[in-house]
Specification:
Elements: E1 22-23, E2 28-30, H1 37-43, H2 47-52, H3 61-76, E3 81-86, E4 92-100, E5 107-114, H4 123-135, E6 143-148, H5 153-161, E7 165-176, E8 179-189, H6 191-198
Helix pairs in contact: 1-3, 4-5
Bound molecules: coenzyme A.
Length: 204
């Protein structure tokens, strides 16, 4: 995994968010391209992904291209760092994004999915580990979180593989398809907070 230098999530600046290229053991995280349209069309067939995300419910090419354009808009509007997850041959296999909770809070949450035909190859775990290694070095964050339904074992196992710790169960945390869902809260603190904790003091 390659992570260099320190940076911030740029919450205080203006202009589009600048996406780094992040390299993991099995995946690279990079900007979405129009040529990645196939994995979005495949993800459209997964009812859970379309309920949780803006992946279209139909698998038409123009709808999938619009999804990809929305990811670039999220960078322009500074909503989130959103990456395509690419395999060792640079084919997109999924999606991962880091969403800052806002300037008032020094925390961000992670969302992700892997195309149905590409699952159980370690891609989600490696993408999470790679994104999180970068995010844990951002100066304007203290913690990185993710929320997982208790039944979604693949997701919480990927989170645990990437070093996340389950902190508890959030009851009726979020509506999915109109129904309140309990979520496990998983988190990691940033490197700076971890060092401060180890030294028994508050982070500067
Ligand atoms: C959840 C999801 C991202 C997992 O992606 P993946 O690339 O298949 O996960 P990985 O291959 O990295 O597997 C990570 C771990 O979970 C396990 N796992 C994966 N899918 C599993 C499943 N369906 N049931 C039980 N365990 C599973 C793997 O065996 C691996 O375990 P290990 O660490 O003990 O070796 C994928 O199934 C998905 O996109 N689901 C729909 C969208 C979604 O749920 N997103 C997350 C919302 S919180």
């Amino acid at each position: 995994m390659v992570v260099r230098g320190r940076a911030t999530m740029e919450t205080m600046s203006s202009g589009p968010l600048v996406l780094p290229n992040l390299t993991g053991d099995r995946v690279t995280l990079r900007a979405w391209r129009t040529t990645d349209v196939g994995v979005v069309q495949e993800a459209s067939q997964d009812r859970f992904i379309t309920a949780l995300t803006t992946v279209p419910q139909t698998s038409g090419e123009s709808e999938a291209l619009a999804f990809i354009e929305r990811q670039h808009e999220r960078l322009r509007s500074r909503e989130a760092y959103v990456f395509a997850i690419a395999d060792t041959e640079d084919r997109a296999v999924g999606h991962i994004g880091l969403f800052h909770a806002g300037e008032r809070w020094a925390r961000a949450s992670v969302g992700y999915w892997i195309g149905p035909s590409q699952r159980r190859r370690g891609y989600a775990a490696d993408a999470l580990a790679t994104l999180t290694a970068w995010a844990r070095r951002l100066d304007d964050l203290d913690r990185v979180e993710l929320y997982v339904e208790p039944w979604n074992e693949g997701s919480w196992r990927a989170a645990e593989r990437a070093g996340y710790v389950r902190e508890g169960l959030l009851r009726a945390w979020e509506r999915v398809d109109g129904s309140p869902q309990d979520m496990y809260m998983y988190a990691q603190v940033t490197e700076r907070v971890q060092h401060a904790e180890q030294e028994g003091r508050a982070a500067p």
